[in-house]
Amino acid sequence: QVQLVESGGGLVQPGGSLRLSCVASTLTFDSTGIGWVRQAPGKEREEVSCFSLRDDITYYADSVKGRFTISRDNAKNTVYLQMNSLKSEDTAVYYCATGKCISDGYYIFSDDIWGQGTQVTVSS
């Protein structure tokens, strides 16, 4: 079973940047995509971004379009989330997770795999 380990979270001021990393034990698994999900206290889970492993599709939530960029390094089995122009509302625990990534959304099912999460706090 694939294992996912996130890193790169921390405390950053508004307007700053962070890059999250997700190291996967393999990028070959049953799900067709992989990406990032965030959970803030008192808020619903938000599927932030993903890419499809089967075709050239990426997805971004409207709240992060133009500020966040997802990428991968196949040689390192690593998925990145570059986060720029951070806002206080980006504060959350960010999880890497497998799922189904299509152009209009990122769908995670009960048998998909999650990492342990990394905290991102945007505050002055």
Give the rounded overall mean pLDDT.
Answer: 94
Count every helix, treating DSSP H or I runs of 4 or more residues as helices.
0
Structural class computed from helices and strand pairing = mainly beta
Most strands sheet: 7 strands, mixed
How helical, in percent, are the residues?
A: under 10%
> Which runs of at least 5 residues are low in confidence (pLDDT < 50)?
none
E-strand count: 11
User: Beta fraction of the residues?
Assistant: over 45%
Q: What is the radius of gyration?
A: 13 Å
End-to-end separation: 40 Å
Order of helices and strands: EEEEEEEEEEE
Shape: globular
What are the main properties of this structure?
7-stranded mixed beta sheet, 124 residues
Overall description:
With 124 residues, the chain is an all-beta fold. 0% of the residues lie in helices and 50% in strands. The strands form two sheets. Strands 2, 4, 5, 6, 9, 10 and 11 form a seven-stranded mixed β-sheet that branches. A hairpin with a 2-residue loop joins strand 9 and strand 10 (105-107). It is globular, with a radius of gyration of 13 Å. The N and C termini lie far apart (40 Å). 32% of the residues are buried.
Please summarize what this structure is.
The chain has 124 residues and is mainly β. The protein has strands at 4-7, 10-12, 18-24, 33-39, 46-52, 58-60, 68-73, 78-83, 92-102, 105-107, 118-122.
